[in-house]
Amino acid sequence: MRARWPIALVAALWVAAFGLDRARDWVAATDLPPLTLPSSVEVVDRNDILLRAYTVADGRWRMTVTPDEVDPSYLAMLVAYEDKRFWQHDGVDWRSMARAVAQAVRSGRVVSGGSTLTMQVARLLEDSGTGKVSGKLRQMRVALALEQRLTKSQILQLYLNLAPFGGNLEGLRAASLTYFGKEPRRLTPAEAALLVAIPQAPESRRPDRHPGRAAEARGRVLERALRDGVISAEQARQTQGERVPDGRQPVPMLAPHLADRVVAENPGVPRLKLTIEAGLQKSLEALAREAVQARGEQLQIAILAADHRSGEILASVGSAGFLADRRQGFVDMTQALRSPGSTLKPLVYGLAFDEGLAHPETMIDDKPVNFGTYAPRNFDKIFRGTVRVREALQMSLNIPVVLLTDALGPAKVIAGMRRAGMAPVLKGDEPGLAISLGGVGVTLHDMVQLYAAIARGGVALPLRVMGDGAPGQRVMSAVAAWQVADVLAGLPPPPGAPSNRLAYKTGTSYGHRDAWAIGFDGRYVVGVWMGRADGTPVPGAFGADTAAPVLFQAIGRISRSLTPLPPAPPATLLVSNAELPQPLRRFRSRTAAFELTADAPVVTFPPEGAEVERLDGQLLVKLRGGRLPLTVMVDGVPLRTDLRSREALLAMPGAGFVTLSVIDAEGRSSRVRVLLK
């Protein structure tokens, strides 16, 4: 008889092992539901702060979070309350299951549950019920399979992302943002306890609808946490005065227009990181609302701020509010085509400085003038006579800038805009003289990019919200860019604004439809547009009165003090009008002495568009006509002011494209653009 016991034991062990192997095979053969569910697309700022999120296709908030992004006290409270042996069991806590069954048999009803966190994950993945035996068995099988294929941390992450919190909230992060207005990295014990309690009965414990029940459930979790040593007695006392939130807070929606745009441009990308700074974005959105609050129901505003050194956009406010109200807040006015008014004038002056047409101290006429049927007038219909170019730009006079545009040619102004990365839209096929007064369609983004190029010494750098940027083309020389900035920095600030030498320009389009103010210091550039989204006039709206005060407030919210503008480049001609070369002392339009005649100077070598080799850094220049002495300029910088021959070797500043200008003693001129090698 004794000899049979070993045989029976071996047989029993074999049967158990066989059964265990078959059970493992049964678990391994489990067809698991998809472990990756759609989650909310998120747009975050440069510091990973949430700017905006989007619901998944069925309208639920399901926002990704990992265990290391969650307050450890919440995780400890969750495991202690829901599944004490979570880190030890294999998906099913057989001890808890046996206890739950025994209690049910003794009392005739369910007293406690034996469901583990892994089993809850199985139920959430398959959206299955808990009441039927078949459903419970399926959850056990899926839970065992999950434990075979995933780590405990991965299973916990699934729970954190799938747990229901009432209404359309799924996952801990969506609940924390909605009920507490913050990420779940730092939670009070009371907040953690509430978030542990809600998923057990998500609809009946919703704090926004049933705050009393939510408070009771939170209390039970806190009692258990104190009993199990998860929280201290002192922490438990501190929770007594903490109220349960009785409403839902909106999920962050900063930079909504920009977020919509980048999401549309990057379909399928779950998380988009922008160069935006959330604190500044929030501050400028508040400033935008304040700016239009007392100005009627239709006035709209847009603000764009960037670091012109890097090209990174730091804040983009498309409207005063992302609403379909009378202001049409859903329209992104940073991207809308509008007339720039006088804000294009700095570009014209910079190009004119480069061409040797003028200098900030050059005298220019502000008198009635006709160009065929086109007769420009100043905004105030007053003529100032002869003024310095510096004053003409600061006073935003129209006649001088049209004279310069005529001398340059409107096509060169358009080409300069395009080199700056702008996309100007013309009313006709060919640009006319009116472009310098706002007769072209541009966006606030384009205008800020232009001023950023001026601030960067004349080199464009495309503004961006994602990725890395690379310098673009040169718009104007470093000397011309500095001269423009120096003139703009001399403008008086609006009443009440600090006198801080911010380089800025205002503009008002025809019919008071657009009010602009764009400015920069040594690091930041900000543009403000105000008007109506539908393009109708805003009586009494001027850039100087309406937009400029907002510009100065925006700059103040970026930095307490201005970053100084750079010093003048070495080649800058810093002299008075009397010390300028004779041809630069007074601007003469093409309708006066600028017309080419038989005696006007002409550059015969190098010819227009030529590629020329320098000889030891020098260029052979051949001239014809003109009254001596001659002045030769390269990119607006005088190279020789007393040339008394018509052939000379001139030292060139370096390789690349240059504009070579020659001006005779009577102010007549000609110029060529060549490539030096």
From TrEMBL:
It is an enzyme of class 2 (transferase). It comes from the Bacteria. GO terms for biological process: peptidoglycan biosynthetic process; proteolysis. Pfam families: BiPBP_C, Transgly, Transpeptidase. Residues 594-674 form the Penicillin-binding C-terminal domain. Its EC number is 2.4.99.28. GO terms for molecular function: carboxypeptidase activity; penicillin binding; peptidoglycan glycosyltransferase activity. One of its GO terms (cellular component) is outer membrane-bounded periplasmic space. InterPro entries: Beta-lactam/transpept-like, Glyco_trans_51, Glycosyltr_51/Transpeptidase, Lysozyme-like_dom_sf, PBP_1c, PBP_C, PBP_transglycosylase, PCN-bd_Tpept. It catalyses: [GlcNAc-(1->4)-Mur2Ac(oyl-L-Ala-gamma-D-Glu-L-Lys-D-Ala-D-Ala)](n)-di-trans,octa-cis-undecaprenyl diphosphate + beta-D-GlcNAc-(1->4)-Mur2Ac(oyl-L-Ala-gamma-D-Glu-L-Lys-D-Ala-D-Ala)-di-trans,octa-cis-undecaprenyl diphosphate = [GlcNAc-(1->4)-Mur2Ac(oyl-L-Ala-gamma-D-Glu-L-Lys-D-Ala-D-Ala)](n+1)-di-trans,octa-cis-undecaprenyl diphosphate + di-trans,octa-cis-undecaprenyl diphosphate + H(+). Residues 302-510 form the Penicillin-binding protein transpeptidase domain. Residues 58-224 form the Glycosyl transferase family domain. Keywords: Carboxypeptidase, Glycosyltransferase, Hydrolase, Multifunctional enzyme, Protease, Transferase. Pathway: Cell wall biogenesis; peptidoglycan biosynthesis. In the C-terminal section; belongs to the transpeptidase family. In the N-terminal section; belongs to the glycosyltransferase 51 family. NCBIfam families: PBP_1c (TIGR02073). This is peptidoglycan glycosyltransferase. It comes from Gemmobacter caeni.
